[in-house]
Amino acid sequence: MERESMEFDVVIVGAGPSGLAAAIRICQLDPEVSVCVVEKGSEVGAHILSGAVLEPRALNELIPDWKEKGAPLNTPAGKDKFLLLGPAGALRLPTPPQMKNHGNYIVSLGLVCRWLGEQAEALGAEVYPGFAAAEVLYHDDGTVKGIATGDMGLNRDGTPGPNHQPGMELHAKYTLFAEGCRGHLTKTLEQKFDLRSKGPEGTPADPQTYGIGLKELWEVKPENHRPGEILHTIGWPLDSKTYGGSFLYHLENNQVALGFVVGLDYQNPHLSPYDELQRYKTHPSIAPILEGGRRISYGARALNEGGYQSVPGLSFPGGCLIGCTAGFLNTPKIKGSHTAMKTGMLAAEAVVDALKSGANPADGLPAYTQAVRDSWVWKELYKARNMRPNFHWGMWAGLILGAIDTFLFFGRAPWTLKNRADHSALKKAKDCKPIDYPKPDGKLTFDKLSSVQLAGTFHEEEQPCHLTLKDDAVPMAVNWTEYAGPEARYCPAGVYEYVEVDGKTQFQINGQNCIHCKTCDIKDPTQNIIWVTPQGGEGPNYPNM
Question: Strand 230-235 to strand 467-469: parallel, antiparallel, or no bridges (unpaired)?
């Protein structure tokens, strides 16, 4: 069966903040431009996971009357607290200027995206959830032609099954990639067009760096609930060499969003980000808030941390990168939705101008790159550029260097520190101390499998596994032998296991558990794991994360 095709002026891959902002802005500027948004989640917002404190700057520009239109920004940010945790106590520190949240809102970003999707459709954009963009299509001259969605109903060996349905080709003059952090198609575009050889400033981009963010949503006792309060911590349970910290946000309806972020440049292969989250909840500053409450949801997602110096080339023949797939998150702010939305809007404006002028798509969208450089996004990322790499020397050095950068140079230090690939930081198991994690109690702390159930993840077991290996021998020959099997720990969903079969250790992939966090694609020490797109509509189903 041949794939059918549809023609649009613009195709947008991903219905997150950047993709939906781009669709809305295009329709605002020219209702005659045909726009299609494809989303691999079962619905808009199903794969969206963030803290989240939303800075409404871009939303104010995009939809000034968002309050009247019912945007789900219901909890204004209140008091900020910043703690340094020790094993049994805490020291309150001054809240860094970048982390202050006056004028912001504590939100469910999934609900915000569902609302943005409604706004986009009301303006004429076509939004198709449940369709995973699996392949970039090209014209003969190498210009991006659009994307193809993945086949449905394939057997495990990739052959068509009895219910096989071929994917659909979506052709466009311009294709905007808004896949979020570590996008699968974005990786192929970076390689094909060598986008890291020339970033927005015309100089080579550093490797992108990442963290893994794990989140739980709790319903707490009314007496423990303080709507609008925001708490961030650093320190325990991590050691001083490992970058990371926590967030705890009081939303509406007696709900608390809490989470833990671990920089994926950590060195000890025995470290488990999931278990660090569980330990964090037992701290005497945190446990009383959760006491007597119940856990509602769980999820995890990688996030960009490289910032300014790790943003690749943004434009290429036939399209561009927008939002977190390009790495616009502001790490010291712990926010990226506002920058993602703004870059989507800038791309939309460049696309509409290009369509009106009859520009050749093969020339790319250089006006978009220039618009980003001229925008508040680029200025914001420039001032924040050294904050994350300051921590390459550990927590204490990072705090001191960060204070110097902020209060002495105001983000304009006469140097720019370099980023390095996260997987290269992992040390051999023999050179690191094992970490003894307590067993979960089922009340405050939980095992991975019970958590995965709360993520609502689903994958058809008969389809080809979307977690592929370049070399099947590497997990046992390298990862197990030299690194003690780190993928069994850095995966937050129990996808990777080393199991005993007839007295022999074997490597096992439980692809049905995957919650699409992309950590394995990032942290695997030999870069042997390649995450590819599963069938559309699969993966986690986050109701309000």
Answer: unpaired
Specify the DSSP element, H or E, that contains 216.
strand 210-219
Cα–Cα distance for residue pair 265/242, rounded to 1 Å: 8
d(CA 344, CA 530): 27
Amino acid residing at 192 = K
Instruction: Tell me how far apart the terminal alpha carbons of the chain are, to the nearest angstrom.
Output: 39
Helical H runs in 321-375? Answer: 337-357, 366-374
Element (H, E) at 136: strand 133-138
Closest Cα partner for 530 from 185, 132, 39? 185
In single-letter form, the type of residue at position 324 comes to C
Compute how many other C-beta atoms are within 10 angstroms of the C-beta atom of residue 42.
18
Cα torsion 98, 100, 102, 108: sign: positive
How far apart CA 60 and CA 56 sit, in angstroms, is 6
The strand pairing partners of 301, in sequence order, are 213
Confidence band of 60 (pLDDT split at 50, 70, 90):
very high
- The pLDDT of 164-171, averaged and rounded, is 94
> What beta strand segments (E) does 286-386 contain?
294-304, 315-316, 319-321
Tell me the average pLDDT across 310-339.
98
Q: Which two structure tokens, joined as six digits, stand for 446?
A: 């939980």
pLDDT digits (tens, 9 = 90+) for 382-425: 999 999 999 999 999 999 999 999 999 999 999 999 999 999 99
Whether 106 contacts 71, CB under 8 Å: no
- The per-residue pLDDT for 45 is 97
Cβ(266)–Cβ(117) below 8 Å: no
* pLDDT tens per residue, range 223-266: 999 999 999 999 999 999 999 999 999 999 999 999 999 999 99
How far apart are the C-alpha atoms of 495 and 499, rounded to whole Å?
A: 12
pTM: 0.97
CA distance 433 to 306: 28
Q: Which residues pair with 402 in a beta bridge?
A: none
d(CA 53, CA 230): 9
> Can you give the pLDDT at residue 2?
79
The DSSP symbol for 238 reads S
| CA proximity to 256, closest of 280, 230, 282, 237 | 230
Q: Which two tokens stand for residue 83?
A: 């703690």
Max CA separation in the chain (angstroms): 69
Name the token pair of 493. Answer: 């969903």
Residue 399: alpha-carbon gap to chain centroid: 25
Place of tokens 């856990």: 295
Q: Is the peptide bond before 237 cis (omega within 30 degrees of 0)?
A: yes
